[in-house]
């Protein structure tokens, strides 16, 4: 005698299959950068152009650790990106590119870095004062904003050449990557925002950046564990 499947059992089976499919899809969407322990936490990279030069600009880049619990520990952060055009880094304060790249086309002054996709790291403590800026030179270590806001930022300055020399000709870098110090972070595209305002030390004068863009990077435990 053959086994007869009732309509109720058939409906139950379809529902089970559908439920498993939804759960399977959810398991993939949750692999994007997201930390369930700190769902609103992120690392924000602020790029402030503070002056124009003959062939580009000088900018201060600051990494803010807006996470509640996760510190950036030794050996510290490393920040990478891809230039939109043929930009080079003429010089840096408070940080350094890990590789110089091929600068053979330059005569006389040689840029600090000619790579299309540079990677920058913080300088170590004890570096000479004339190579420092505020919030630099801690070996890439940054505290979390909730636990130690006074030490929750890290900055470096760079002079960029072969770039735009106005708000209309500058092109934003792309493909930002952040290791802090390991993997797990996904960075969104750079976004132009309202220029940063700076208060003087005596709090009697306010200046502002000539142009500012932000990059937001979020953490995923899944991505951190996925990469060896």
UniProtKB/TrEMBL annotation:
Pfam families: COBRA (PF04833). Residues 1-33 form the signal peptide. Keywords: Glycoprotein, Signal. Transmembrane segments: none annotated. InterPro entries: COBRA_pln. Belongs to the COBRA family. This is COBRA-like protein. It comes from Salix suchowensis.
